[in-house]
Amino acid sequence: MGLIEQQKFLAKLYTDDTLRKSFIKDPAFTGSANQLSEIEIRELLSIIETEIECFAESLYFKRLHEVERLLYLTARELKHDFRTHFKVFSNTFIPDQVKKHLQDALEFSEFLESNSEIEPWVKDLAKFERCRLEFHNFERRIVAAQLKYDIRERSKDPLASEPALRRTFAVWLRAGNRTFHFIR
Q1: pLDDT for res 64
Q2: Cβ–Cβ under 8 Å, residues 143 and 171
Q3: Where are the domains of the chain?
Q4: Alpha helices in the chain, H assignment, sequence order
Q5: Are 40 and 27 in contact (CB under 8 A)?
Q6: What pTM value is reported for the model?
Q7: Distances (CA, A) of 114 to 18, 147, 167
Q8: CB–CB of 67/111 below 8 Å?
Q9: CB neighbours of 84 closer than 8 A, spacing ≥ 6?
Q10: What's the CA gap between 126 and 67, in Å, rounded?
């Protein structure tokens, strides 16, 4: 296995709970299933299990905190459930772009938007934040989102009542070096 493939496998080993537990339980089978040689398997086994777990845990929390920072309104609304949903998400998605935390936040937002356990208005909040991130990070001239709920008051005041079911549009616009944002 080449160096790039080894690094990808190691990254996956650190970020995928199922793979990591499988490798620790049966390294020969899991290693060969992932095209590792016996030498590579022995080298990985030389890393103590607790070191792998500790490093994996630190990577997970780094990802979580960055996504919480980028999706702060959604994190505020979901509270502890944000972490619960992110744990499920992080086991199924590994960012592969340069801006890994941004990619994590965008993909996690889409994950929440498609999750049937999430309140519909919280899905709108996640969609709103995803569109905001896309506008500011990809130098788009215009980004628009159609929302089912009027999230304006809730986004300003966490103690406000549940948003009204009312079609709302959020628009971000770039004109020259000026940006505009409005919700109607």
Answers
A1: 96
A2: yes
A3: 1-47, 48-183
A4: 3-15, 17-25, 27-33, 38-45, 49-70, 72-78, 80-90, 100-113, 120-137, 152-156
A5: no
A6: 0.75
A7: 23, 14, 19
A8: no
A9: none
A10: 12
